[in-house]
Fold each of these.
Amino acid sequence: MPTSKAHRRLAIKSSALALLGAGIFGGLPAIAALAEPVTVTYTCVPQGGGNSVSVPFEMELEAPYTTPTPSSTVTLSWVINQPTSTASGTPLPALSSIAPTSTIGATGTISPSGSALPSAQVTATAVATNYASVAARSPMPLATMDFVVKPTATGNVILKGAGFSLSVNGTVWYNCAPGTGGGPSMTLTVATGTSTATTSASNSPTTSNSPTNTQTSSSPKPTKTTTHYKTITPSRKSQTPKAGADTGFGGDMGPDGRIFILAGGALIGAAAVGGLVMRRRSVRKG
């Protein structure tokens, strides 16, 4: 038979497993909401001519964590990274050496589709500063592009990346285009909600109530009210001892305790004497 300690250990383990399971399943929506980079192969052609390069870029379209609302401005990012290893594919090489503080630029095109956003293409741009020297034919540094959309209604919008160009110090080095499957894509959900502007507007009538309360306040009423004040002084009788300070002996405390002590002592003495007398009489008679 399991002991009470065994039952207690079993209950603790069961509770721990339940909490772990709740954390895992409760965290699934948050984990699923995070976008994951995808590998998309682009064919990049040097601007000045030369052989094209097929590069399996690691790409990701990132949206803000808050759900956008209609007529709100939403800023998104297009992240492009070189292949993580040579086994994954050949990285895009630098056409020449790149000095520190050189400007790395990128310009891309995003194609939206969905009723919540106009179907016109959106331009994504990036300008970043490179702070490390890059040798010729080494992997070229890339910049993250940002683009802005403004939904007009609620619903889902599919955003899909198209071609992009890469430049160094304002000079285009590569023009890159995706295959038939296109570039990276994401779904942007536009929903109704309480935005900051809506909240402040709904709160404004509440704040305007303070002047109304001030106008209807009863500040003039105290001038019409007669207030009577009555001060009651409690009566206190103080007794000052006429023969000095009250030390607890005599006075109003009644008879002195020494009288009782003397009386008791006299009674004890009388009893002792009486006992002796009675003893002597008994001895004489015997």
Amino acid sequence: MATLQREAEIRRTTKETDILVRLNLDGTGETDIDTGVGFFDHMLDAFGRHGLFDLTVHATGDLQVDAHHTVEDAGIVLGQAFAQALGDKRGIRRYGSLALPMDETLVLAAVDFSGRGALFWDVDVPAGMLGAFDTSLGKEFFIAFAANAQATLHVRELAGENSHHILEAAFKACARAVRQATEIDPRAAHDLPTTKGLL
């Protein structure tokens, strides 16, 4: 039986950004990230490595304005890549969750690839800049990702003080929750994980 190729390549070009994403859900965590925003590169690298997704994200954007459009549009395209790579979602576990500790920080992420994209964010990140990355952009990224991946995503900060730790824990927790949810369940490899017959 042929192995299902759960991969996607999507390019999105607007007057503000040019984003290319390549994704392999069944990879080993190899990443090739270049967005022009150092902290965001660090977060996407962590997302790929902790999710064991082979992930390329190349982005050019209007960084002379700020990083908002680059970060948000990367979330859009990455979400679209997940939706495309998952296909009809047959055989996936559908749900994933993890509480991830990082020093003083503890962040919970829970995801359902339900077909109903929405973010529920209860993360108190101190306002400020991490290099060229405004800390408010973490939420903007995950709004775009969840909507376009057609996933219900909850992210909740249970403890934390340091902005870098809080956002990094959020990205890593989401990556590991998404990894769980998108893995093929060998006990139900040909079934849809729903009573509706459609996800």
Amino acid sequence: MEPGQSYHIFNHANGAENLFREEENYRFFLKQYNKYLDKVVDTYAYCLMPNHFHFLVGVCSENRLRSTFPKFETLEKLVTRQFANFFSSYTQSYNKVYQRRVSLFIKNFKRTPILSEQQWQEAFLYIHLNPVKHGFVKNHPRWKWTSWHAYENPRKVFMLNRDFFLNFFDSWDHVENMMEMKKEGLMNKDLE
């Protein structure tokens, strides 16, 4: 993962398992995410669902990474290592609580580089619409474990770079209008 590059990050639980069995799992996952990744990525969007998750992130600049981690040889490995440490930390805690021994995540998390303004917009909207796509809710704001709420209510605690979306959308109203259009398209597709 390259400094200064944005990525859509996602992964799924192994087999038919869930990553999150109860509310505390979601909270702990976000706490560990902040602990391991806050200094290596800026987070723009996220959505956690029972068996998978999505994040839209921007890897910090080379200067910022070098000032925070001056002894790390290659910055690309640093970011990947921090993600691996995060997943390992969550898995170890989860396994301890639920008396498991096997891997929790599918090996090698997926990361798609964001190469255009349209791709960034699509990823942002897709992530927030994912609970509707998978049938967890009919209306995306009703899903609790998403960054949508932090954009609607800036007092929410999760560490997001909330202003960055303005590089890709005219306003929050613009985001909401595009979400409604995407949701209608998704609903119409389901009716076909």
